[in-house]
Amino acid sequence: MQDYALxxxxxxxxxxxxxxxxxxxxxxxxxxxxxxxxxxRKR
Amino acid sequence: MNKFTTSLTAGVMAMMPLAAFAEDSSDPIVIxxxxxxxxxxxxxxxxxxxxxxxxxxxxxxxDSQAVYESVRMGDVTLEMEVWEGAFGASYRAALEKGGLHDxxxxxxxxxxxxxYPMWTxxxxxxxxxxxxxxxxxxxxxxxxxxxxxxYLDGPVDWLKHGQERVAALDMNFTVVNAGSAAALWAAIGxxxxxxxxxxxxxxxxxxxxxxxxGEFVEFPEWEEGCDKDPAVGVNPDALYDCGxxxxxxxxxxxxxxxxxxxxxxxxxxxxxxxxxxxxxxxxKFVDIDEMEPEEAAEAWLEANKDxxxxxxx
Lengths: 43, 313
Description:
The structure holds 2 protein chains of 2 kinds. By secondary structure, chain A is an all-alpha fold. Chain A has 1 helix and no strands. Chain A has one helix at residues 32-39. Mean pLDDT of chain A is 44; it is low at 1-5 and 14-43. In chain B, the strands form 2 sheets. In chain B, strands 3, 4, 5, 6, 7, 8 and 9 form a 7-stranded mixed sheet that branches. A two-stranded parallel ribbon of chain B has the order 1-2. Mean pLDDT of chain B is 92; it is low at 1-16. In chain B, helix 7 (162-168) links the parallel strand 5 and strand 6 (173-177). Chain B is globular. By secondary structure, chain B is of the alpha/beta class. Chain B has helices spanning 3-15, 37-52, 67-72, 84-97, 119-123, 130-135, 162-168, 181-194, 208-211, 258-261, 263-271, 276-287, 293-303, 305-308, and strands spanning 29-33, 57-61, 78-83, 100-117, 149-153, 173-177, 199-204, 214-216, 248-255. Classes of the chains: A mainly alpha, B alpha/beta. The A-B interface holds A 1-15, 19-22, 24, 26-28, 30, 32, 34-36, 38-39, 41, 43 and B 30, 33-37, 39-40, 58-66, 68-70, 73, 75, 81, 83, 85-87, 90, 93, 110, 112, 154-155, 158-159, 180-182, 184-185, 203, 206, 283, 286-287, 290, 292-294.
């Protein structure tokens, strides 16, 4: 079962409070594997 | 081109949807994914729709606040779930700077607040009024809360201000914080067996409404400043003496360049509109049925062809 705590968009867990800190080096090579690690779910 | 070919081509073209005439770039449409199920599945649903139209699609994991800066700059192409209460400020800030725009609303509302599964109303028929809930407080009492009702709030670090609400409205409830979101769902599931009345923190859309029909408690209506100015709200001496905003929008946002680079996909994006139950179902496929997001998207598209096929022409 995945980590449900990651699933409340009203409480974004990754929000640092400084959205202007965005930089262009976000990952562009994510595959489906990354979705799974992001949601913390294992089958 | 001979006459036969010409008429054949004309015949085929007559059968093609209008969108097929538009020339979309072969560059991938970059779709951001975040960390909650409905957004991931919805993004895959939309990506697969674009692929069915001949577009290339790439998914990237991004921060759910910083994504608006990414869309504005064209690093990602769109955002499928702009929740007013959670992301409205970041969205508006990026909108003012320019580079992204409103691509339309879903036919859905977003909300977070005190919530109960429907069997609770059988025991406390005055619901959803908060005053009726308060009169029924004894029904929610546990060994932990004595003669007061238990309100199971979200984890402490979610900062949902349940305790302040109880104090501001002088309610006969004790706030207990769940250790995790999973604990909220476990508590509802446990109460379901005996149809025990329960009131917990919840939000919509999520998978829960696809599993347990329920309603939000109606507190005094949200007023701007209720969380910052004690004078606002029914208790002039307290903050949080009102409910949370009840009808937040759920919007789509697009990079300004999308409509020129991928005109057919853009046209489809503007037509896409999901409802709360549809979004809840998408989340349920992952959260309850344990499908992979891409499988969940395939399942949703297969089961709802009549809904989405109209968006592609």
